[in-house]
Structure formats: structure tokens, C-alpha cells
Amino acid sequence: MSTEFDSTVVDDQSTERMTTNKFEMTYHKTTGSSMMTSSWSRGVGFYFQCAVAVIGFVGAATNGLIVYAMIVSKQHKKHVLIFNQNLLDFSCSFFSFLTNAVKLCNIPLSGTRGYWLCVTVLSEFLNWGPFVGSLMNLAAITIERYLKIVHSWWAWPNMLMSRH
Q1: 107 Cβ partners below 8 Å, 6+ apart?
Q2: Which region among 26-30, 95-99, 111-115 has the lowest average model confidence (pLDDT)?
Q3: d(CA 132, CA 74)
Q4: pLDDT confidence bin for 40, thresholds 50/70/90
């Protein structure tokens, strides 16, 4: 836990400030009066990270159930692009949850473990791969559906060949 002390002299009166970190209590003493803020005043960033972690957890759970249902019902072979989209959404949600959960834990980044944690998880490197893959897969789904609807002469023979 990092602690920061700051003492300054303003108009011949001492101002002292002690701050732990942005997620813990803060104590201010100014000209003899004191003000104590509760832990509920942590800031918008903390609550945003909590919300993103919860959304990531719920997204990973629901996409995991969809992937499981598609595998059990053998639909993953019939709807390959939709199955890939669910896998990419699952991994994006899972890594979003993981990244924000690690940020909320406030782990010290020292040594080899801290270096690799910073490079992989905290840099959000793991989030961007599935995100970009999801964008490309959505483009492929869009093109496939366009060809099936607008150019049905192209889609009909290709659908027959893919079923055999």
C-alpha cells in the first residue's frame, strides 16, 4: 500500500494531507479542522471498472452457455460463422472480466510476474485480439447474408455443396 504525505505552509498555517491510494479512505487536515471522506467516494473510475467486470462476467457466462448448447445440439457444424462469433464474444467478455478484476485487485507490478501481468493483462492486449476477430467475423456474416439474399443464384449451389 502506497502512502503519500504532503506538507506545505500557506499563510503561516500548516496544511497536511495524507492520501493512501485512490480506492481507500482519504484524510485531510487543513488549518486545525479535519474532514474524513468515506470509502464510498472512491470515484467514477472504480465503479466503472466494477460495472465492466460484472458485464464481462455475465457476457462470458451467457456466451459460454450458447457455445455449449451449440456443441451439444451439433449446430456448430451447420452455422460456423455464428458459432465463431459466439466463441469470439465469449473470449472478449472473459478477457474483459479478467482485465478489470486484476485492475481492481491493485496487484503490485514488481518483478517478472508484475512485468508479464502488465504486458498481457493490464495493457488489454488480450481484449483486442477477440475484438478485432469479432469485427472481421461480423463482416463475413454480413457478406454471406448479402450474397444469400441479393444474389440467391450464387447461394443456392453453394448451400447444396456445403450440406453434403
Answers
A1: 114, 117
A2: 26-30
A3: 27
A4: low
Find cell 494531507 and name the residue: 17
Provide the domain limits for residue 123.
44-163
Cβ–Cβ < 8 Å for 67, 60:
no
Among candidate residues 3, 24, 6, the one with its CA nearest the CA of residue 16: 6
Residues 29 and 107 in one domain: no
Residues 8 and 58 both lie in one domain:
no
Q: Positive or negative CA dihedral for 55, 58, 64, 66?
A: negative
Same domain, 27 and 101: no
Please check whether residues 94 and 155 belong to one and the same domain.
Answer: yes
Chain center to CA of 116: 18
Domain identity same for 143 and 75: yes
> How many CA atoms lie less than 13 Å away from 54 in the CB half-sphere?
6
Alpha-carbon gap, residue 4 to 141, rounded angstroms: 53
DSSP string, 97-141: HHHHHHHHHT----HHHHHHIIIIIITTHHHHHHHHHHHHHHHHH
**Number of compact structural domains in the chain:** 2
